[in-house]
Amino acid sequence: MMTDIEIAQSVQMKPITEIAEAAGIDGKYLEQYGNYKAKVDLSLLDDSDKKDGKLILVTAITPTPAGEGKTTTTIGLADGLKRIGKNVMVALREPSLGPVFGVKGGAAGGGYAQVVPMEDINLHFTGDFHAIGAANNLLAAMLDNHIYQGNALNIDPRRITWKRCVDMNDRQLRFVTDGLGGRVNGVPREDGYDITVASEIMAVLCLSTSITDLKERLSRIIVGYTYDEKPVTAGQLKAAGAMTALLKDALKPNLVQTLEGTPAFVHGGPFANIAHGCNSVMATKLAMKLGDYAITEAGFGADLGAEKFLDIKCRYAGLNPDAVVIVATIRALKMHGGLAKTELGSENLEALEKGIPNLLRHVSNIKNVYKLPSVVAVNRFPTDTDAEVELIIEKCRELGVNVVLSNVWAEGGKGGEELAKEVVALCEQPNDFTFAYELEGTIEEKIEAVVRKVYGGDGISVLPAAKKQIDMLTANGYANLPVCMAKTQYSFSDDPAKLGAPESFTVTIKNVKISAGAGFIVVLTGDIMTMPGLPKVPAAEKIDVDENGRISGLF
Predict the structure, then answer these.
(1) Number of other CB atoms surrounding residue 225 within 10 Å
(2) Rounded CA separation 82/411 (Å)
(3) Which of 37, 82, 86, 93 is catalytic?
(4) In the annotation, is 104 catalytic?
(5) Of 21, 116, 190, 520, which one's alpha carbon is 20 to 30 angstroms from that of 408?
(6) Which of 14, 83, 104, 453 is catalytic?
(7) Which is the catalytic residue, given 64, 72, 74, 244?
């Protein structure tokens, strides 16, 4: 059996000019990065008078080590829509080098539902993440230089909130002391690094709607506080212009293709457990402008990625989704029912029945909280039995939601045709899209709304330090922003060990901080880290290159 990278390398890609032409992108808007990648100029949005296409979100159950296949389903669904004669575009996030070399490996789909060139997409691509890292670290350098050069803004070095970043899993850098070596080498202080995808600049880039909007958001970023507790911004450090100069090309969406030649935007990559977890607003808007159907995804389970896509991204960008696909596997649901990963190969209706409530809570949230039409896509594995499939269909039918079997990993677009037909039908249904909360409430009320309505919890417990932060943010006029929940992706609760659909739990709020440039309040629960570490056996150990430059081991 071929690996993902071997499948990707076996397919002859079309020149990106051909893909652009098929998508209706005139050559004057195209900035090529070699033969198979290009950036698309943002002016295309203003110049096009085409009516926006339908917007479909692909999300999933709570993730498990058994895997769900959300990106694979997104790509296969798009190829399926193309096969049934629809004009379709995909919009995905760019993978981070940290997970590529860490546990997860590549993130460009799998099997016969991939975006290519997968090696480029998983590695340097068009340099967007490098630009984001450079802009982040320029701000850090200007901040420390300002303090070194006399500190006219009266910044308290103990209250700096801005960290440096690097797009690699490097636990050694989580907490560092820098500025050592005497007076000429800076002011000594405790510091730390985030992974680039956790940088606020990543979130800012993905929510910006123009270069002007990008510059204004960058200038609002809070880097720390003065000795008398006043916030200090990137604008006050006069850094926003230079940061925008580093990011002006990174703001343009990247055009690539699926294995079947469907045009795809791959742009931006904020994590969904610590940021809003969606590709850029510009890529989504361009996909809707060019396609009659735009398929996008949001990270992790629907309680994280979909919640933020709907409550943050759609709210800011004025998007109204037409349908939602919720991806599940029988294997993963059996893990939620208490089975070990080694026991998933044989039929176990009892474990499946125990795990299905996880899926049903996500389905109910999309239908009853957000009021959107949805379908469950079950990624079928050879070990799944007919009885197990029938059980899922029966349980979802009770909620009035259809289940479609998806075989896109093995068959590409052909295995996604049934799902495509269901999605087309859903898009014709009227919907009454509603947010989980309105912006007018207090910060605590908004957090509580997400915990009760989306997670199924009993409420929140706010630690004293977090309460003080909430009071300060409210006093500084930030109470009317949406909340971005940072919590484990492995459970509806803040405890990764609580699988399935836990009940009677409260979520502990440990830290609350402002991302004023992105325009949301980050609420930290549980043990969330903004700099992952490598596992005992990193994926990097298996990656190699032969004498012809052909990469292997990047799965």
Answers:
(1) 18
(2) 14
(3) 93
(4) yes
(5) 21
(6) 104
(7) 72
pTM given for the model:
0.95
Residues 163, 195: Cα–Cα separation, whole Å: 10
**Tokens, residue 299:** 């990270």
Residue among 129, 409, 492, 505 flagged as catalytic: 409
Q: Is 93 a catalytic residue?
A: yes
What's the pLDDT tens digit per position in 351-374?
A: 999 999 999 999 999 999 999 999
SS3 content of the chain, % helix, strand, coil (to 5): 40, 20, 40
Which residue, among 281, 138, 126, 134, has the nearest Cα to 207 in the 3D structure?
Answer: 281
Q: Is 496 exposed, middle or buried (CB count within 10 Å of its CB: 0-12, 13-18, 19+)?
A: middle
pLDDT exceeds 80 at position 439: yes
**Can you list the pairs that 45-50 forms with residues at least 24 positions away whose Cβ atoms lie under 8 Å?**
45/282, 45/285, 45/286, 45/289, 48/289, 48/290, 50/24, 50/289, 50/290
DSSP character at residue 197: G
Catalytic choice (300, 309, 492, 520): 300
Instruction: Check pLDDT > 80 for residue 67.
Output: no
Tell me how far apart the alpha carbons of residues 99 and 300 are, in angstroms, rounded to a whole number.
Answer: 14
22 is a catalytic site residue? no
CA distances from 353 to 78, 131, 302, 347 (A): 31, 47, 20, 12
DSSP state, 93? P
The CA distance from 69 to 57, in Å, is 14
Residue partners of 318: CB distance under 8 A and separation at least 6:
none
- Nearest Cα neighbor of 148 from 184, 191, 190 is 184
Would residue 250 show up in a list of annotated catalytic residues for this protein? no
3-state SS of 200-240 is HHHHHHHHCCCHHHHHHHHHHCEEEEECCCCEEECCCCCCH
Q: Which residues pair with 57 in a beta bridge?
A: 296, 324
Distance CA 224, CA 356 (A): 45
Whether the Cβ atoms of residue 53 and residue 285 lie closer than 8 Å to each other? no
Q: Specify whether 381 is catalytic.
A: yes
Active-site residue, selected from the candidate residues 37, 39, 54, 70: 70
Of residues 83, 226, 381, 452, which has the active-site annotation? 381
